[in-house]
Every structure is written in structure tokens, then in C-alpha cells.
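Lab notebook page, bench 4
Experiment: in silico fold of construct C2
Operator: M.H.
Input chain length: 174 residues
Purpose: comparison with the prior construct
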Amino acid sequence: MKRFWLWAPLAIFVIFFITVASGLYAPDDRNHPSKMIGKALPTFELPAAARDRPALSSRDFTGQPRLLNVFASWCVPCIAEAPVLTQLAAQGVIIEGIAIRDRPTDVDRFLATNGNPYRAIGSDVDSTIQLSIGSSGVPETFVIDGAGKIRHQHIGDITPTDVPVILAALSDAK
């Protein structure tokens, strides 16, 4: 019995170490989908975030399905996804943007450097609209149907391998 108590602290430490190491090696899913999927966009009016694009309003989301891309000029993954968004826009996909915690001069510079696939861009300086649609970071992209309902959410930058899923979600939103 004395021997058991001698080795018990080591056994407890090994069990603790294995538990922590397995959590670090294979963490839980870090994606937190919006609880707004299937619901209408909240009502909003955002001022223009760029000189050459109009402001953005929830009333703009009628008619055709479109993408709502939440981005920021200071976001490195947003730069990585910019060419893919430009390709989608060239294919006729309507893309609206919400610039998060940004200044118009920075957004203009970002668009001049990385391309401008957006029909309109709203400025959400305090992230109120971002949070109300269930976005937890940048970039995030939502498929909005012609009735203004959120149908799909893509967390993170859109890569070329994600394009078929995005196009399918747009097709399903018709």
C-alpha cells in the first residue's frame, strides 16, 4: 500500500499531461456558426466605407441572392481572399461588404491594392452589425437569399477550393 501512494502522484500527473496534450493536439471545433442562419438580416443602415462605393442598408438585400462579406483593411486573410472574391464578382456574383473597425482612407487603400469586388460597402466602426448577424471575426462571408434571409455562412477566407460550396449555396438560395 505504501508503494501505491509513492507512485500515485506520478500517475495523476501522467493522466493530466495526456489529457492536456490530447486537447492541444486535436482541439474542439473552433468554428461557431451564426445562430442567424435561416433568419432575416437585422435592419441596418451603414454609411459608406469607401469613396467610390455606396453605403449599405439591409434594404439592399432583395431580389437576387448575394454574398455579404465581412472584412477589414487590417486583416491579412482578407487580403488572401481578395482575388477569389474578384473572380466571383467577375462570374456575376453580387458581393456586398461590411468593413469592420476601419477608416475610409484605409478601406480605399485596401481596395486599390487588392481589388474591389463589392457593389456597396458599409462601415461598421463598432462591429454592431457584425455581431448582430452572428459574425465572430474577419473575414466571414454570408449567402443572403433574395428575401434577405441568411442561408449560409463561410468562416474564414474563401479559397479556390471553397468556391464550389459558395456557388452551390448561392444556387440553393434562389
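Observations: The first strand starts at residue 45 and ends at 46. The chain has a mean pLDDT of 90.
Next step: discuss at group meeting.
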